[in-house]
Amino acid sequence: MKQILRKAIALILAVTAVLFPLAQMATLIRTTDSAKLASSIETADTNSVVIKAAIEKHYDGDGWNFEPRTSDGVHITPQGDGMHLKGHPDEAFFVFEKTAALEFTAEFDAGWTYNSKYSYFFGNDSEAAEVKKLADGSVKFTYRVKKGAKIAVTELTAACVNATADALPRLDISIDCDFESVTKDEWVNAKISLQLGTKTFASGNYNGSGKVKGRGNSSWGYDKKPYSIKLDEKASLLDIPKTKKYAIVASYTDSTLMRNYITYKAYQDLIGIDYVPKCEFVDVYLNGRYNGIYILVERISIEKNKINIAEADEDNITGGYLIEKNVHGRVNYKKDQVFDCPYQANQVKDYFVLEEPEIEDTELRREVLQYLNVYMQRVHNSVMGFSSEQYTEYIDEDSWVDFVIVQEISKNIDGNLKTSCWMYKERDDNKLYMTALWDFDLAYGIVNWSNADEERNDATDCPGSGTYEDFMIINSSCPWIKKLYQQDEFRELLTERYTCYRTTVIEELRSLIPEQAAYLAKAEDANYKLWKKNFSLGVANLQTWLNGRLEWLDEVWLIEN
Fold this sequence. Notes:
Layout: H1 2-15, E1 22-25, E2 28-31, H2 37-40, H3 49-58, E3 63-65, E4 69-70, E5 74-80, E6 84-90, E7 93-96, E8 100-108, E9 112-114, E10 129-133, E11 139-145, E12 150-152, H4 153-158, E13 160-161, E14 163-165, E15 170-174, E16 188-195, E17 206-214, E18 227-235, E19 243-249, H5 259-266, E20 279-286, E21 289-298, E22 321-327, E23 337-340, E24 350-356, H6 362-384, H7 397-410, E25 421-425, E26 432-435, H8 479-485, H9 488-502, H10 505-520, H11 523-531, H12 535-557
Parallel strand pairs: 4-13, 15-20
Antiparallel strand pairs: 1-2, 2-10, 3-6, 5-8, 6-7, 7-12, 8-11, 9-14, 10-11, 15-16, 16-17, 17-18, 18-19, 19-21, 20-21, 22-24, 22-25, 23-24, 25-26
Helix pairs in contact: 1-12, 5-10, 7-9, 10-12
């Protein structure tokens, strides 16, 4: 019974996750009656961590403090009886003790318009809920409650008002040749300008110069190509801290355009991983020609505002090092600082690449790579139990726990220390730290294959990443992740951390989907005309998949008191 009830609650969460269009009649907008799950459930699991956290946050002992989530460009003003609902919680429900009307008005900044499709206001009770567009462009929300009636707590917490921007920031990159001639190997001189759109950024517009080249592995083979940018002078673009190193990510395989975005945004406040790249959406123009919506993101590097460690030098080769896990076929043996991986988990040979510092002295470079070869072997031996040294001497548990949680939530096929997995080693510190979450284009159920194979990771013999169930990187052929998860101390820390995140960053991850869908709704039209990706269907599928995935992970990781 408990499992059935939990699934019912999960369905309510899915319904209230804002993927419901609002039907308009003249200026009156009513929420659709597309689901009535709350009214059909007579009892619910009182131990739900999410529900308990919501009650602790909103219930003041006398009633419910109603706080709808609002996107950029939206301002809420209470009306009538205000935003406090007198009543009390009853397990997974809230019981009203007074007949009243919850009323508020949403006003929108210039350039922002109400998006009914990706907003949500008591969709399971369309007779009591009224959403009315006023002549001045504002929207009035009214919910009439009756004494003795009850509503699912999830209905109260799901309410949100999201707005669409008239324009995204415009990023222009101009070069003296056709972009078809740009490669991943050579930088090309470029003029770069950024003009703000509807959303405000303190850094303002930008005009400057720099260089551009291609980037990516499989993503470079798509028609909509990603690029690396290197500014001539450090600059803050869209409030990203000053740096020379940026990238524009095409998200070609992701019809929602937001898998990377929501991951980077939601996980800025992780406990263990101390750096996650900052990013924003932009409309990109290449030599004056529109090329679609991209994500402008800072590139991973050792810098004060990114991975803030002291680089190794000839006086101390113990660190710091910024390292990427990679595989044969994705490394350039002539240019990359490559050293061996102590195991093979893929169809091709595994490698580590020392990304920074870039060492010009040949002898010092040889010495450093040999040091890292020996170091990684010691990490391997400690994790696998091949030496007397404990894994905790070489693995920073906090960051590795966060890494596993993020990769498993998204079921990221590249997140099993295959490629695009970043780590660092500090000077005079034996521990290896995970950092810089990166590359989620193929995550969150977007493909129907996975890396869940004990022998070798391969697209043809590892089905399953499109499903909600089972582990991805824990069950993969990467021996480190599997072995760490078998350690009681590591696993206990992981479940504690997941339970903590379930009511914080994970809920932020869920809420960002409709919020950003609303933000992109107008700009997406032009992107669709160019690339023919079904945005609305992609958003719906992403939300459904994430809800299902969290339901499964809750069963195995969530600690309920």
